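Quick start: read one record
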Amino acid sequence: MNKHSKVLFLLFSFLFVFGFSQDPKFKNKKIYVSKENFKRKFEASDSLGNIIIGKDTLIEVLSHPDLEGIPVRYEYKDSTFLEEYKKVAFQLYHKDSADTKTMKYWKTPIKIYFSEGMDKKVIKNIMSFTKEIEGAVDSLNISRVKNINEANYFIYYDDDFQFSQKLEKYRKSDYSIYWNKKSQIYKGYMRIIRKRMFSNKLAQEKIKDLFFGSLGWFKRSHELGCNSYFSNCYSENKQMSEFDKQLLQYHYSYGICKGTTKLSFEAQHKRHKKSLKDGRTDIYIINN
């Protein structure tokens, strides 16, 4: 690779990292894949060595024809913002664990089906809320469908048809989401306990709070004000603040690596920031 080469950091499945020349076809590249991806996709003879980032072992391999995606410039954020983001984006394995589970996000459009017992005014309020979310995050597409077979998100009361056996055991209103091996959410359920909802106002606020959390399996924070949707503090008057929007926008930004654990996230940002400090400004991310 010559001195005019740029560096491209790539996430493919869990993690691919490579550098590319100014050639638009990216012919001159180094590719690093996670250990698990190496086992699934490559032969032993493909290995050219390895490096370690956080808890991830990355194995250098020969050029692979299946690499695809659009490079997006790395999105820089200061340390203060990143610390706040990490508090809500990553779920712990347990309270004493050093690392976390991977961050989750929706890549496919969210198509909501409301049960027949849901009040029309509540539905209208919820859909207005989803439009506010869409306005803040370009990559989120949320709509209502009336055909069950077209839906991938179901919102219903406990005395309506039960779409999720898992949620039937819960005594409180809650949601359940499912994701694939890339940590991309593809289905969601929300069950509301009707007897706890003394008014449509309470019902719609509970649904909005749970729906917001299900956009990324977010961990609620003790440190944010009660009116924040990222706060675990109860409030009947939560509003999507500018900071809420910034955190959500960043979570869905394709200028950061998706599907990582917290330790991998920290290691990648440390590496990218060092590259910026060294004068290397062309840092890109590809999420696939």
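DSSP finds seven helices and 13 strands in the chain.
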